[in-house]
Amino acid sequence: MPRVLDTAARDAAVIQAAWHVIAREGITALTVRRVAAQAGLAPSSLRYTFPTQAAVREKAITAVSQRLSQRIAALPADLTAQAWARAALLELLPLDQQRSLEMEVFLALGMAALTDDSLQPLWQQADTVVRDVCTKAITAAGGEPTAVQVDRLHALIDGLAFHLLVRDRTRGHDWAQHVVDRELRSLAARRL
User: Fold this and answer.
1) Max CA pair span of the chain
2) 3-state DSSP call for residue 138?
3) Average pLDDT for residues 22-40, to the nearest whole number?
4) Which of 12, 40, 70, 84 supports an S-S bond with 79, CB 3.0-4.6 Å?
5) Homologous superfamily assigned to 55-191
6) What digits encode the pLDDT tens for the residues 109-118?
């Protein structure tokens, strides 16, 4: 009897493998052959779903948006507005191994999008997810989500995410969480 492949599980494994290749070797190393090897699959098994390097890159950046949206949607419904704002903003930061990997991929593909027009709308879609979360967090924190406020919070979150990736990791994450907490308090105070 032929083995039935769980295509969703295989695709998730391929995306995870692509992310590892990007994080370890860079965007130029992202080939179907390398991704297949990382995922423990035959390259020919990927040719239908991911026929080209471009298809793998596109799916990798789309998966970042999807996973971020899923994590935000999975936040407990019984959180207070302020607690939701904090939890949502912390989901945007690389505070664990998986989110660090996602952020590395987001940054690498963002740089690739500067010269690859096919990646630009996909990267922009991922960036829009982050911006939307920032807008909702400002509202939930009691602030007014003006363009300036959203730009400020978005820049703060992007900057924190970058520093969490490149700074000495033995320092921990508490400092970044304190910055988020101070910003949320500041947003609520500006409303009064």
Assistant:
1) 68
2) helix
3) 90
4) 84
5) Tetracycline Repressor, domain 2 (1.10.357.10)
6) 989 999 989 8
